[in-house]
């Protein structure tokens, strides 16, 4: 099905040849910066009485600039991720951020001009044919502008953010990029990056996991003071801006960014909290199978150690080519169009998966709108978790693919629905693998891997959410020490995991880069939303069969031009502010625990 062998490194040369030394990219940035200056003058000239043609042209140029800036930002993300020692890329990152700040100023000016319309003028303006297709985006920008400071102060904040806000995020990446962790695996000592060490926490040997985790935790402790400074100052800047805007609730911005209500978020977490006790049964059963009294943090991603004399195929690692082939085969069962897309992405080297030092930790998918391509970054070591990550990121790429051709303003979907296609792709791979498992042992291991992700969404991410909301409230009173951060993280983990582990990860606040992302606040609950929303969509797909594929693409195409409650009402006929939808999704997720326990009983 796939051309072999696949190259596990991505190709950036057909985007901008020459990497961080690319003269084409340097020229591109110069042209982009000049275009933004020209655009600024056009926006300044706009008034509610300006001809519709002038507004239409300026909006078109804004969208073109959005695409060009996304193209540049995606390229920089790839360069800085593939080699944390690339100093030229870091300098370019600062340049792109500065250009982005300039464009942010232009957008603030544009939004300010939307505020100048009277309600009647706006009703007439937005009803014109050339703007009707952008009505949601323009209405949203006008409403959000009404909740912010005046243009001058917002522009000042944008300018100061480059060195007073985003720079702390850059500092985090710089510190983490210098961390090397000395570990011993199978008798050999080696230095690994934090990302590689995190992958080793899924090693089948518990002694290896325990030893790696101890050194992993020590590495974060050694850098705790620097990293706590980064976290404190990111939060401090954010809270100061909120205070000047008159925003008291730290969740106000992330909820608005994710186009969802507080009622929807509360309904989701309340339903999870009431139902996740069943995961405690899974913890106990897995500990029994592993011959231990209680799971520790470093056991959560571990493969099962079964008493069977023969290891199932699922327990073995999967080479990159094998994992890719597996994913494409499962996609094919749902939608040949999705499978064809994924195969092309893999064969055309859209994926950076090589397991080597010097790479950034974690994984992501970024899109190049002008090239109509995406790139996926991860470190693939052959675990089932890696296969799931690859499927997840291919889902992100597919989401962007089905939105290609829409106006840029209608492609700006929020993080919670951004996780829909990615999590849906994971579900396709996991469930198809379980269904076609050749042996009971294999089915048990695949169920375990799938439940691990439920644990992550219901417990790990809940711990992040609890920690971050409490941290921001505490940060309003002043700086928070690394010791207190540890205490807050431990309390959040114990609550989220129902006090079901023997050992936790107090330095998770330092190791999880999501806390240091300045572009998107509260990089946590959207994952759980996306997971459960995907389960609801997946259940609908199972009922409707192949006919659902077109509906699925239509739903994805609407993710950038609707609030989530409206999206769910239109495409699924459900009310997200009520517990019904969430309860059905939670029940579907926890049904895997019942299947897991039944499989153990059946032997």
Topology of helices and strands:
Layout: H1 23-44, H2 52-82, H3 87-115, H4 119-126, H5 129-132, H6 135-145, H7 151-164, H8 166-177, E1 181-185, E2 188-192, H9 194-200, H10 206-222, H11 224-245, H12 252-257, H13 262-275, H14 278-290, H15 320-334, H16 336-347, E3 351-352, E4 364-368, E5 373-377, H17 384-403, H18 415-435, H19 440-475, H20 482-496, H21 508-511, H22 525-544, H23 548-558, H24 564-572, H25 579-602
Parallel strand pairs: 3-5
Antiparallel strand pairs: 1-2, 4-5
Helix pairs in contact: 1-2, 1-3, 2-3, 3-6, 3-7, 8-11, 9-10, 13-25, 14-25, 15-16, 15-18, 17-18, 18-19, 18-22, 19-20, 19-22, 19-25, 22-25
Describe this structure in words.
It is a single chain. The chain is mainly α and 603 residues long. It has a domain at 19-164: Oligopeptidase f, N-terminal domain (Butyryl-CoA Dehydrogenase, subunit A, domain 3), CATH 1.20.140. It has 25 helices and five strands. The protein has a three-stranded mixed sheet, sandwiched between helices. The longest helix is centred in the last third of the chain and has 36 residues, at 440-475. The two termini are 35 Å apart. The relative contact order is 0.11. Mean pLDDT is 93; it is low at 309-314.
**If you consult CATH, what is the topology of the domain at 19-164?**
Butyryl-CoA Dehydrogenase, subunit A, domain 3
What is the straight-line distance between the termini?
Answer: 35 Å
How much helix is in the residues? 55-70%
Protein structure class: mainly alpha
Strand adjacency order, main sheet: 3-5-4
- CATH architecture classification of the domain at 19-164: Up-down Bundle
Low-pLDDT stretches: 309-314
* CATH hierarchy class name of the domain at 19-164: Mainly Alpha
Instruction: Return the average pLDDT rounded to an integer.
Output: 93
Q: What kind of sheet is the major sheet?
A: 3 strands, mixed
Strand content: under 5%
- Please work out how many helical segments DSSP would assign: 25
């Amino acid at each position: 099905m796939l051309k072999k062998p696949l190259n596990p490194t991505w190709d950036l040369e057909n985007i901008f040849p020459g990497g961080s030394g690319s003269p084409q990219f340097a020229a591109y940035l110069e042209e982009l910066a000049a275009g933004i200056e020209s655009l600024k003058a056009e926006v300044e000239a706009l008034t509610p009485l300006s001809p519709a043609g002038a507004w239409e042209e300026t909006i078109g140029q804004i969208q073109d600039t959005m695409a060009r800036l996304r193209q540049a930002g995606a390229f920089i993300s790839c360069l800085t991720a593939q080699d944390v020692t690339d100093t030229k890329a870091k300098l370019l990152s600062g340049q792109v951020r500065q250009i982005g700040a300039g464009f942010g100023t232009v957008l603030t000016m544009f939004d300010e001009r939307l505020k100048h319309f009277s309600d009647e003028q706006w009703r007439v303006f937005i009803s014109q044919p050339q703007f009707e297709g952008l009505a949601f985006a323009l209405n949203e920008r006008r409403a959000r502008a009404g909740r912010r400071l005046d243009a001058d102060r917002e522009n000042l904040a944008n300018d100061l953010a480059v060195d007073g806000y985003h720079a702390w995020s850059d500092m985090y990446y710089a510190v983490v990029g210098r961390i090397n962790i000395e570990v011993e695996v199978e008798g050999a000592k080696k230095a690994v990056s934090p990302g590689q060490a995190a992958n080793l926490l899924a090693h089948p040997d518990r002694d290896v996991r325990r030893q790696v985790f101890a050194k992993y935790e020590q590495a974060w402790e050694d850098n705790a003071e620097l990293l706590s400074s980064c976290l404190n100052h990111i939060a401090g800047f954010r809270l100061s801006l909120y205070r000047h805007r008159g925003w008291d609730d730290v969740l106000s911005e992330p909820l608005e960014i994710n186009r969802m209500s507080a009622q929807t978020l509360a309904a989701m977490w309340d339903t999870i909290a009431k139902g996740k006790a069943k995961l405690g049964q899974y913890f106990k059963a897995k500990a029994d199978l592993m011959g231990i009294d209680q799971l520790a943090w470093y056991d959560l991603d571990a493969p099962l150690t079964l008493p069977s004399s023969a290891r199932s195929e699922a327990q073995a690692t999967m080479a990159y080519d094998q994992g890719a082939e597996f994913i494409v085969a499962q996609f094919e069962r749902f939608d040949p169009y999705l499978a064809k897309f994924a195969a092309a992405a893999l064969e055309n080297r859209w994926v950076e998966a090589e397991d080597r030092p010097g790479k950034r930790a974690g994984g992501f998918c970024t899109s190049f709108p002008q090239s109509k391509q995406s790139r996926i970054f991860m470190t693939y070591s052959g675990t089932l978790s890696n296969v799931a990550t690859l499927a997840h990121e291919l889902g992100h790429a597919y989401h962007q693919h089905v939105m290609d051709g829409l106006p840029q303003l209608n492609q700006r979907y929020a993080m919670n629905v951004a996780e829909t296609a990615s999590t849906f792709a994971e579900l396709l791979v996991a469930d198809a693998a379980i269904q076609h498992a050749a042996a009971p042992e294999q089915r048990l291991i695949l169920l375990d891997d799938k439940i691990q992700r439920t644990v992550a969404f219901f417990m790990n991410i809940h711990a992040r959410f609890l920690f971050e909301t409490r941290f921001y409230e505490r940060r309003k009173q002043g700086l928070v020490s690394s010791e207190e951060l540890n205490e807050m993280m431990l309390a959040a983990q114990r609550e989220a995991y129902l006090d079901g582990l023997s050992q936790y990860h107090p330095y998770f606040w330092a190791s999880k880069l999501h806390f240091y992302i300045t572009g998107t606040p509260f990089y946590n609950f959207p994952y759980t939303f996306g997971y459960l929303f995907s389960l609801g969509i997946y259940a609908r797909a199972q009922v409707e069969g192949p006919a659902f594929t077109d509906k699925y693409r239509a739903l994805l195409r609407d993710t950038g031009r609707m609030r989530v409650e409206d999206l769910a009402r239109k495409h699924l006929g459900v009310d997200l502010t009520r517990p019904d939808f969430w309860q059905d999704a939670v029940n579907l997720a926890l049904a895997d625990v019942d299947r897991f326990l039944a499989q153990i009983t059946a032997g």
